[in-house]
Specification:
heterodimer; A: alpha/beta; D-Maltodextrin-Binding Protein, domain 2; six-stranded mixed sheet; 39% helix; B: mainly alpha; 21 helices
């Protein structure tokens, strides 16, 4: 089974990569609206995580290139797996001075906890990128391929192999469930608090595999302690510069090629409060468009091996609708829905 | 001695006049941030991080890490003067620092705290300089079972030291555990004990509880005793620093224990807060005069401060070599490194040697700068206690309120702080100990997480806590600590009988 969340933009991705960046961002030359006081940039996660890093990088680029006249202030609202941040935006109807960056908890938190919010309670602005996931194993164990590893897990018996991941009933566990469904292997899933910790637990052989983001495990990969088995996407990563001594991101096979067909990406997008005007949305789209054209952003995308898929407006809403349905189905099958 | 050469190169990088200036700016900012409860090093660094993108990475990280050192120093100030811990790891400093200041010796208390911090940091930097690769390997040995064993050791070294009846201690601790359970449960991904209230989803932040329990609780108690219109008779003398330094070498064993506990907890990464509690508990167990603890014993300041600063400093080691942050502030710094295009991990020392050694050199210099900054302020801070309580109390209340608000940018937290203040007052009146409750609140969540992760990996087999020498050793040590009062009593009875017979 493939978690086909993105056949819609599979082709778009290649197109965007070829044609340069941000083909589809709304292109009103001069937005009519402009903020006249500081804008709060909500991060529905703690300091130091992937979403927080991206938000602070964006803030830094915007300050450095003077893209906004008013300050952009990052505020972490991580309570209840991010529900605190989403609810604060949901409850600020018509307030254009609040934007929020999302991760997969946009879908998983309301489904798993029953906290009443939905992406439709907010105004979608733009998808900035998609974060990838890779199946990692410890190099010492010598698994030749993802298939090889999965066979070993099956041979050991259900629950004997340990999969480490970030959080519970969130993206890492959903991918694990997807992988189990696709292959018939059965893991014990061990939830940790942060991605960096997960990668190090794998280096220390406390778990057998992880599905870390590229950025979370790249340092250990380059040092040779971890092996990248396959990427959870239907196309390979586009970055061909060598990252380790012998491999680039592009050399990692897709999980489909590796014979364990599973795929999943995580949304890195921006939302605003409900009831904001088209002018206000256009203003932020313009700012992000300029931000994504800076060398700092491009370097960050390549370092973290992000999928540079940018969507706005209706296309973004369609993507969200489909992604939500996919999450719901997967989580229902796994028994993760709130009762 | 290639480390020495590399370090000298690092000093050459760090000792440009701009970098020294950034160092002092960072330290002063850090002390201010550390003094304001709630703001905290992690927030302070996070707020300033984007402003440093236009700076050269080495200068930027020097300034940011100096903010961190400054915050580590500054956390002690309000703990000692007002019984309000500026940072979580300063809670244990209040136990003896505040009584000592109240007895009229704030200068000695502050000097002791700052000097101990410096010693702890210095030992940790030496370790980072010479043992980095070895220590990084040691950190890899820590899985969930080992983490839990460490948490257990912290609890056990702290339990039994309370003067209150055991049942009151256990009751206070259980309330702490219950409060720690509120909010998101990382193992199941479910909300617990929130009763559908949005505000409770964040859980009870440890700092808000502490600001209320200690800071506000203390004000309420003082008010009950009658509003005193004169300040404490504080002896303030510029010579206080020298006089204190003369007394400190007597506690060399406490310094060594504190530094070792701190380095260990910072690397593994247990963090500065458990390190300070564990060090305090162990110091009391080994002290010649354990009865003096809690009443203004110098050793009771040395132990937690040395450990906290050693842990805070050594927390940067796993960040640099493994890419895992040993503390919340280290997590923000880690984000900064990634944004500057530096990739923490095993190769950082090889590929960006200039940067790494510049940073390590700045740890030496930044801590010296920090010590100079804070020691010169000792008389001024100590003089605050001369201000009559009726004037200073409203100021403290405002600091408490701002501090609680800053933690989560929420007004609800300010109300919560007030509730905790009342609880603190009632606890004191009924002589329930606060420390076990605070300890359970700060460690309950992580200890529970590690315990359940460990049982998940072993599929429910408790043997995992004795599965290898490391985890078994720590668990056994914890159990010995826990039962040591009973064991020593038994030993006393046995040897007593022998003597009688």
């Amino acid at each position: 089974m493939a978690i086909s969340m993105k056949s819609a933009f599979g082709k778009a991705l290649v197109g965007v990569m070829g044609a340069g960046l941000v083909a589809s961002v709304s292109t009103s030359a001069l937005a009519a609206w402009e903020p006249d006081k500081q804008v709060e940039f909500v991060v529905p996660a703690g300091t130091g995580g992937g979403a927080d890093q991206m938000a602070r990088l964006m803030q830094g680029i915007i300050v450095k290139h003077n893209l906004m006249k008013q300050p952009l202030v990052v505020v972490n609202k991580s309570g209840g797996a991010g529900a605190e941040g989403f609810l604060s935006v949901k409850n600020s109807k018509g307030d254009p001075y609040k934007i929020i960056i999302t991760l997969s908890n946009l879908f998983t938190t309301p489904l798993a906890t029953g906290v009443p919010f939905n992406w439709k309670d907010m105004t979608p602005v733009a998808m900035l990128a998609l974060d990838q996931f890779i199946l990692w194993t410890n190099t010492e164990k010598g698994y030749k391929s993802a298939k090889d590893y999965i066979e070993a897990a099956k041979a050991a018996g259900p629950g004997k192999f340990k999969m480490g991941g970030t959080g519970s009933k969130q993206e890492d566990q959903i991918i694990t469930v997807g992988l189990e469904k696709a292959t018939g292997a059965k893991f014990s899933y061990i939830p940790y608090k942060g991605g960096g910790e997960v990668a190090v637990q794998l280096v220390g052989n406390h778990v057998d595999s992880t599905v870390n983001n590229p950025a979370e495990a790249v340092a250990q990969w380059r040092a040779g302690s971890l092996t990248a088995q396959c990427v959870f996407d239907d196309v390979r990563l586009p970055y061909k510069t060598k990252v380790t001594a012998t491999q680039s991101w592009n050399d990692i096979p897709t999980c489909k090629e590796a014979g364990v067909p599973t795929d999943y990406q995580m949304l890195r997008g921006i939302f605003m409060a409900p009831g904001v005007t088209a002018d206000q949305i256009a203003y932020f789209n313009e700012v992000f468009k300029k931000m994504m054209a800076t060398p700092e952003w491009k370097e960050y995308m390549e370092k973290g091996a992000f999928s540079q898929t940018v969507l706005t407006g209706k296309e973004f809403a369609d993507w969200l609708t489909k992604a939500e349905a996919d999450h719901k189905q997967l989580m229902q099958e796994a028994g993760f829905l709130a009762k | 001695m290639e480390e020495i050469n590399a370090l000298m190169g690092g000093f050459a990088v760090a000792l440009t006049w701009q970098n020294v200036m950034y160092m002092f700016i960072g330290t002063i900012l850090g002390v201010l941030i550390g003094t304001l409860p709630g703001l905290g090093g992690a927030n302070g660094v996070a707020i300033l991080l984007p402003l440093t993108f236009s700076m050269e990475p080495t200068s930027a990280i020097i300034m940011l890490s100096c903010i961190y050192w400054g915050a580590l120093f500054g956390g002690a100030i309000t703990s000692i003067l007002f019984n309000i811990p500026g940072e979580p790891w300063s809670v244990a400093t209040t136990f003896d620092g505040y009584p000592m200041a109240q007895k009229g010796d704030p200068g000695t208390a502050l000097t002791t705290a700052f000097t101990s911090s410096f010693v702890g940091a210095f030992v940790a930097v030496l370790m980072i300089t010479f043992l980095a690769p070895m220590v990084a390997k040691f950190a890899l040995k820590f899985g969930p079972a080992e983490f839990f064993a460490v948490q257990l050791l912290t609890f056990c070294s702290f339990v039994g030291m309370s003067k209150e009846p055991p049942f009151k201690t256990i009751a206070a601790m259980m309330i702490g555990f219950a409060l720690a359970a509120v909010g998101m449960d990382t193992i199941t991904g479910q909300l617990r004990l929130t009763f559908g209230e949005e505000e409770l989803m964040r859980g009870f932040d440890f700092l808000i509880a502490v600001i209320g329990l200690f800071g506000l609780g203390e004000i309420l108690l003082t008010m009950e005793e009658g509003l005193a219109f004169k300040g404490t008779e504080a002896k303030i003398d510029a010579k206080v620093v020298w006089q204190t330094w003369k007394k400190l070498p007597a506690y060399w064993a406490t310094f060594i224990r504190g530094s070792l506990i701190g380095c260990w907890m910072g690397v593994t990464p247990g963090g500065a807060t458990p390190a300070s509690f564990m060090s305090y508990g162990i110091a009391k167990k080994f002290a010649k005069n354990p009865a003096g603890f809690g009443k203004g014993e110098m050793e009771g300041i040395v132990a937690p401060e040395t450990a906290a600063h050693a842990a805070g400093t050594s927390a940067l080691l796993p960040m640099l070599t493994l890419g895992i942050p040993g503390s919340p502030t280290a997590a923000v710094l880690l984000g900064g490194l990634l944004i500057w295009g530096l990739q923490p991990g095993p190769l950082l020392f090889v590929e960006k040697a200039d940067f790494v050694w510049g940073l390590i050199a700045s740890m030496y210099l930044g801590n010296i700068a920090g010590l100079i900054v804070v020691l010169t302020t000792v008389p001024y801070f100590a003089a605050i206690l001369k201000i009559p309580f009726s004037i200073i109390a409203p100021v403290i209340l405002v600091i408490c309120a701002i501090g609680s608000y800053t933690v989560g940018n929420a007004m609800f937290d300010v109300y919560l702080m007030v509730v905790f203040g009342i609880i603190g007052y009632v606890f004191k009146k009924l002589s329930y100990p606060l420390a076990p409750m605070v300890l359970a609140l700060v460690l309950g969540d992580t200890a529970e997480g590690a315990f359940r992760q460990a049982l998940l990996t072993s599929q429910g087999d408790m043997g995992v806590f004795f599965a290898n020498g490391l985890v078994g050793g720590i668990t056994a040590l914890a159990l010995i600590m826990l039962f040591s009062p009973i064991l020593s009593k038994l030993w006393g009875m046995v040897s007593g009988k022998k003597a009688a017979a």
